[in-house]
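Protocol step 6 of 9: fold each sequence in the batch and record its structure tokens directly after the sequence line. For illustration, a two-sequence batch is reproduced in full.

Sequence one:
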Amino acid sequence: MTKFVAILNVIAWSGFWAFGYLALTADGLSDKQIVIAALLAFAGFVGGILAYMKLVRAAEASGYARKSNQLDAETRNRAHAKGAS
């Protein structure tokens, strides 16, 4: 599954860069075509971010990457209560 998400990640970022370049540098395109290119670039951006975050979570879960330093809710609440006293 992670290979599929990685492929989607590459495709999404490729779409972002390709359509973003078209939207920014197009000379002979109509306004409608530029808007469509910008929307497709935005969709590639969102898809790339979501796929990347999914890959990060999968890497942390598999042990390939170190886990982030976020505290769980109980530890965080205990630290806040101790600091407020």
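Sequence two, same batch, same settings:
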Amino acid sequence: MSARLLVVAMLCAFQYWVLTSTVEAYNGGDRDIPLPALATSLVCFALGAGLVAAGELSAPRARGRKSPPGA
């Protein structure tokens, strides 16, 4: 679960970096960047959403497990 959270956080940071780089390049006059950046951002979003959904789907099974007595 912690690894999943770490990967989602890294994907969010990468998306933020893509956004800032795209805006900076666009303001600098490079008009070819926004479409590939959009595609990259959508892939990152899909991966992050998939990881969050997988975590949510596995959470009820993990909550249903009972710890052994005395633990």
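Proceed to step 7 once all outputs are recorded. Observation for sequence two: The radius of gyration is 18 Å.
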